[in-house]
Amino acid sequence: MENNQRKKIQIAAAKLFVQKGFHATSIRQVGKAAGVNSSMISYYFKSKELLLLSIFEPSIQDLETIKSYLKSSSSTEMLQLFYMIDFYTERVMTDDTGIYLMLQEQSLRSIDGSTTLLDKIKDEQFALFQDIVNSGIHKGAFMHDVNTRMIFYTLIGTIRYIIIEHKGLWLQQNLPANQENFRMALTDANAYLKSLLVKMLLPEIQPHMIDRDKKIDK
């Protein structure tokens, strides 16, 4: 019951922060939208600032989930990268308001705490991605001359664009978005980003290697 009420407040706050902005939203407005007394919000979160930060908690938990998977995974580095793409595209689908609020806060920087936390999340996401790529390079599975940071930015930027394009205006104005179009766009992006990783990381098969393999088959 307590967790449900806490979550209810977070959902209401996230929607209002997206629509009105953090500073223009009052605790009273959040309480009214969530159907709870303002004092209940103070009980759970202490302040509006801590309420905002609490909305980003799932992204911290996501990092732990991915770390746990990677620690126990025996998959190839490419499949581990595919797992990250699958994880985040599905995550965006199930929590589009919270994710969009993160994107908004990365630009607006409403409070110092959110700036620090969001930078930390982004840095840890990149560190996980970089560790996988470096492992693939070390094993000879990936090319050596790759720009890991730019590849990472391409992945994040593509998903970010889809969220803004298919959800941004609707979330800001509290209008119903076309969920099916959103899902289709994420599905297409998922496939595209995986093919992009293959092209950018795997060594190209040289023509003389193909000829050699044909001779071996004969």
What do these coordinates show?
By secondary structure, the protein is mostly helical. It folds into 2 domains: 2-52, Arc Repressor Mutant, subunit A (Orthogonal Bundle), CATH 1.10.10.60; 56-204, Tetracycline Repressor, domain 2 (Orthogonal Bundle), CATH 1.10.357. Helix content is 81%, strand content 0%. It is built from 11 helices and no strands. It has helices spanning 2-20, 27-34, 38-45, 48-55, 57-72, 77-94, 96-108, 112-138, 148-172, 179-201, 207-217. The longest helix is centred in the middle third of the chain and has 27 residues, at 112-138. Mean pLDDT is 88; it is low at 206-218.
How do the helices and strands line up, and which of them pair or pack?
Layout: H1 2-20, H2 27-34, H3 38-45, H4 48-55, H5 57-72, H6 77-94, H7 96-108, H8 112-138, H9 148-172, H10 179-201, H11 207-217
Helix pairs in contact: 1-2, 1-4, 1-7, 3-4, 5-8, 6-8, 6-10, 7-9, 9-10
Global Rg: 21 Å
CATH-assigned fold name of the largest domain: Tetracycline Repressor, domain 2
CATH architecture classification of the largest domain: Orthogonal Bundle
CATH C-level class of the largest domain is Mainly Alpha
Sketch the topology as an H/E string, one letter per element: HHHHHHHHHHH
Total E-strand runs: 0
Structural category is mainly alpha
Say which CATH homologous superfamily of the largest domain is assigned: Tetracycline Repressor, domain 2
Strand proportion: under 5%
Tell me the domain tally.
Answer: 2
Q: How far is the first residue's CA from the last residue's CA?
A: 69 Å
The shape is elongated
Helicity, in percent?
A: over 70%
- Stretches with pLDDT under 50, minimum 5 residues: 206-218
**Largest beta-sheet details:** none
Average pLDDT metric = 88
Annotation field: number of helices:
11
